[in-house]
Amino acid sequence: MSVLRNSGLASLAACCAVTVGCGLALAPRQAAADDIDIYAGLSAGNSDAPNIIFLIDNSPNWSRNSQHWPDNGGNQGAAELAAISAELSLINSSMPANVGLALLSSYSGTTANGATPGSGGGYIRFAARDMTVAANKTALQNILAGIAANINSPNEKLTGMSSKDEDGGFYEVYKYLSGLAPFTGPYGSSYAAQNGYVDIAGNANTYTAASQGLTSGYAIVGGNYVSPISSTKPCARTYIVYIANNANNIGST
Q: Which of 34, 1, 31 shows the shortest CA–CA distance to 14?
């Protein structure tokens, strides 16, 4: 039994996952089999590795201890990050997957592309990369551990609920999957503290893909997102798994 199932994230993931398959049609995905099998599509005979994007609600409730999680000091967000990291270890050549990470941002940029300063949104922390490549897996696991170790830092956590915009977070993932220009996720701490950790070449901030030694597969190249959805593998399923953290549904849409 895996850490993900122990933590209850498997059930949450099955409920929150949105799958994008051939023709980019959206449909809910029913939970079945083991944790990674939910996304690998092994029973469907699909040989293309799925794209799995974790979108994490890093609003203030993220670092609560009130729910008494059994590990990671009882910290809610740290336990979630550890569970994702543990699941990455199960991915191999016989059960491949491309995994990426997005978080919410307290975006406070300009009105470019119709954005509203200070409204909040999301950003791509780690583009969906092949987790059968050891360097990619190690980099993402190091980033997850680094975020957990700094979970109360304003660089990792929104400082207030007023800048939490889940719709904006999902829209940013849509922009990424579509290969469009960032909306609330451009690189630079001038937009928001969290945006200093966007997955882009040359980002020397600790716990980014570039600082972990990766030299390719960045989320943003030339000002636009690089979509993980490939025309050479049109039937590879793409999942967005949203992990919400809130008290009595406050601050969630």
A: 31
Phi, psi of 166 (to 5 degrees): -65, -40
How many helices (DSSP H) and strands (DSSP E) are in the chain? 6, 8
∠ at Cα 145 (190, 8), nearest 5°? 110
pLDDT tens column, 208-226: 999 999 999 999 999 999 9
Q: Is the dihedral of CA 155, 158, 163, 164 positive or negative?
A: positive
Instruction: Give me the residue spans of the domains in the chain.
Output: 3-243
Task: Give 86-135 as a DSSP string.
Answer: HHHTT-BTTB--EEEEEEEE-----SGGG--TTS-EEEEEEEEEETTSHH
pLDDT in tens, 87-107: 999 999 999 999 999 999 998
